[in-house]
Specification:
- Strands 1-5-4-3-2 form a 5-stranded mixed β-sheet, with helices on both faces.
- The protein is α+β, with helices and mostly antiparallel strands.
- The protein has one domain (7-107): YaeB-like fold, CATH 3.30.2310.
- The chain is built from 3 helices and 5 strands.
- The model has no long low-confidence stretch (mean pLDDT 93).
- InterPro entries: HigB-like (IPR009241).
């Protein structure tokens, strides 16, 4: 069995995740655990507009649609860049820009 990778929450992403409704928060935890163990989340899509190897976990719940933008390919950790509730069909520019800024800062910090 693969040792799970640690999770690093960048910026306010942990607080943002904690603000999700309980069911969405539990599903988010399960999906992040999948990623930590080297598996694919159940519902995801690439987010190349944010950065190389960045993905978005998609969670649908009675309370709405929730997203977790993360990168797991950089080093030996899963970096959660941004967590938010999606209010419109298209991901807002502000959400994409925030995740992209955190990604750029992470790459710079890691010297990659």
């Amino acid at each position: 069995m693969i040792n799970p990778k640690p999770v690093e929450f960048l910026g306010s992403s942990l607080d943002d995740l904690r603000a999700f409704p309980l069911a969405a928060r539990r599903e988010a935890g399960h999906q992040i655990d999948q990623v930590q163990r080297g598996r694919e989340p159940d519902d995801w899509k690439p987010m190349s507009t944010v950065g190389q190897c960045v993905r978005e976990i998609r969670i649908r719940d009675v309370s709405g649609a929730f997203r977790i933008i993360y990168v797991a390919k950089i080093t030996d950790a899963v970096y959660v860049l941004h967590c938010f509730q999606k209010k419109t069909e298209k991901t807002s520019k502000a959400d994409v820009d925030l995740a992209a800024k955190r990604y750029r800062d992470l790459v710079k910090e890691l010297g990659q």
